[in-house]
Amino acid sequence: MSEAPTDTAAAEGPARTDGGTVTASDAGGSGTALERLVELSKRESVVVIGSAIALLALPVLLIDVLGFVSTLLFGSTKLAGYEGLSALVLAFAIAVIGFDILLGYTELLSFGHAAFFGVAAYTAGIVSTQVSANPLVMVFIGIVVTAPLAVVIGFLSIRRSGVYFAVLTLTFGQMLYFYALGPGAWLTGGANGLTDLQADPLFGFALSDTLQDIYFDMTGSLLLDVPFARLSVEYLLLAAFTLAAIWLAYRIINSPYGLILSAIGENEQRVDFVGLDVFRYKLMAFVISAMFAGAGGALFAVHERIAGIYPGTLYWITSGDFVIMAVLGGTGSIAGPFLGALVFEYISNVVSSLSFVLFTGPLKGIFGEFTLNFGSIWRLVLGGVFVLVVAKFPDGIRGAISSAVEAADGRLTGSGGGGSAADSEVDVDPDPEPETDGGATERPASRDEETGGERR
Amino acid sequence: MLPLQSTLISIIINGLQQGAIFALLGIGLTIVLGTMKFLNLAHGALYLVGAYIGMLFSVQRSLADGTLYNLGYTTVGLKATEATVFGVTVNLNFLLAMVMVPLIVFGIGMLMERFVARPFYDRPETGQLLVTFGLALVVQEIIRALFGPTTFQAYQPVQGTIAGIVSLWRITIIGISLVLIAATYLMIEKTDFGLVVRAGTEDSEMVRLLGIPITRSYSLVFALGAALAAFAGLIGASFQTVSPPIGTERALVPAFLTIVVGGAGSVVGAIAGGMVLGFVFAGFQQLAPQWSSIVLFGSVAVVILTRPEGLFGSAEVST
Amino acid sequence: MTLLQTEGLTKRFGGLVAVDHVDLGIERGETRAIIGPNGAGKSTCINLITGLLEPTEGTVTFDSEDITHLEPYETVQRGMAKSFQTASIFPSMTVEENVKIAAFAAEHGSFQLNFLRDREKFPAVNAVVDEMLGAVQLSDSRDLEVGSLPYGDKRRLEIAIALAAEPELLLMDEPTAGMSPEETQSTVDLVEDLQEELGLTIVLVEHDMEIIFRVADRITVLNRGSVIAEGSPDEVQGDPQVQEAYLGGVEL
Known about the structure:
Chain A is an all-alpha fold. Chain A has helices at residues 33-41, 44-74, 83-105, 114-130, 135-158, 162-181, 185-188, 211-219, 233-253, 256-266, 268-273, 278-303, 316-329, 335-349, 362-367, 374-392, 396-413, and strands at 355-358, 370-373.
């Protein structure tokens, strides 16, 4: 009954897009400008180029733009990010993009992905001291190591579903954590961490060199002091990997896997009954997501080479952070995980050290003065927002943004958006937030944004 | 005493004590999972709340961090009221705590059921896991925000040992826990309420059709589970440190491990599973502490994979 | 030529015998109806055949191959498809996507490593989708989200999904349950089309006797897990045991 898969990749078939997901039918026509923009944003080339631009713009946004806003409001740059923050965001974004393939599509909730993140980080670190400090080698080996680990953990965990799956993944993660902390300390440095990491220059450029430095070395003159010139080689390395991750995720989501995994997430038994090997597909999703986490972890190690790698990277809290980032940002897309990582890392690293003295001026007389220290409550606020998102906003930040954009578009064009029976895909974000176009990356489920993104 | 004998005694005592705590936690989780098919990742948070409230009732602690500290409070908690009974110093506040903690958390449990659990009964599993995970996080962070991340030392309401080897308090705890476990078991097996719980575990649909107001029972079941977890926390705080992460580390994970081994939905299973895991853990703690956690987790993984319904469970709860 | 055969098929759940030594022999091209009062074991039987349940005893043979211990997806790949009692579909996807998943399984087998290829670029798969949608008259609705379809359309989609696998044998579990008379009629028409145009072998679990009389060649009657009668519709109708099983002479 099944033929050999010899379908050509020729641009045959319905003339929809050259690479996007199922979109509004051709008959529907153009509709509003927003809809046309959305259609465009699903094309592979647009996604890749758009992401590249966003990635390059991210540090500028976090440091310069926020710095400006911060100075305007508070007279200091305390709201702004810092040099290493963008790199952190990317490392986690890669991990969460992969994690979301497992959670947002296949609906498997793993509380043990820190295992892959941490193992890759430690591996990259150990490779740097024992084998080669070439960053590419470090990352490559880090990723490769996660594959067999994921096959084993996945094979064992997927045999059970639901909470047992979650508990099993948590279990394996914790086993690795305790091993790294105790019996494995000869390898990992135990509680003291792995600290003698190094990273050689990449293609002859030291990782900490900025573009400005390189230009100076080559020409002897200073580049214009534009923010762009401040990007470091290390950041560009991470950005390159992030771009690759985004592209890979895009490809996966638009492949038969995207459809099949979503179907498994929605009605596993039916997928079984159409003749697909659900277990193997789940395992593939698990391994793919684990390797993304591994990539993030290995790159994290490169970034943290000076500070060192600690058992916390394997800890259940880190696994939980992935869950929070994915859900907060909005599952079932690429933009969502990226946003989630961005917001989480920003709050965790910047907001957490903020404190405000309240109240000043006339309000002081009424409410008195006390110090609002975010350091002790940011996780609480984050947790509260998380619960809110789970309960009321299943599509997270990304969903909230799309709904807002849509509403605005509806008001501007005076229409309810698009005519025909074909609902248009909505999820692009034309605003300059440093994230990728979310459109082409929707799981089919989030189609019905207009009704508030209720996926279930 | 010979080292072997004292080691053995240690293992037995610690095993019983640890097992009792695991059992209490497991019972609370299993009745909720069995009756409402609800996966409560916030179960550990209830242990945490019990630990802190219990600590506050029993002893006075000095604060160094957190919002309460920032508001000017340098100490929290009741001052210990000591009395001497049979030559042994006893902190009477603990008796107060033993009553108040379950009571307070029982109420919290009812609220939690009404506002967090109930809206999610019909939502897919993932939603239940996520919302209770979020709740656990929020509770943990509220505690951390109020009291700071400080690790508070254990306090023992009863000082002294038997023959210099076995701590009096541990014996007392084991005694109290076993009584509580027995009482819970009897209630589940012998009373009407228990009957509803057991029937609900078997077939909640049928119970509803029989006209029994099961929603009210749900609240009680949830609240009971919460109270048991809180009591476990109260006890745990008396010989282990108290800090925000213990909810997940020392309570949630062991609770799930216990019901996996014992069988989801089975009270007897929770007791048996708790005891087994307690002994395994205590044994390794004594002999190879670095491996104790690893073995604990590993053995649970083995159970999930080979006999997913556990020792006493029915295959009814989804695998 | 016997396409599907069960021998001594038995399933026990603890002390309860749900299916008791059931022997079935279904010929190629035949339409067989399985009827019986509630709890007779009809659904369990189907589940044993598809592989969702493991038999306690007995064998299932399909096209001369022993499929007793195969998983459902394996039996489907061998040419047996099932349409579910309640429309078991993917509610948040479009009609087209629903069928496409089945088409992928049909064209590519149970597993592929094609996670980097655009899923719109498989002409054979697209062709199957178009064909199936046409066959159940849902082509116009292809881009609609399935959750918003009327129930009758969902059931037809259900059948389209089952047919996409190009099965030799179609198991239909109460296909007209909960349908209005018009919907029932169109389902019956559809079944008749399947019989004539595709020559499908069909096993039908049904309660509605009128339908059975219209489409079934033979009927197997189950009660309490065992076969109590088997034969042509007329033969079965007149069988006193069958009448008794349905609570004493209810008009068939």
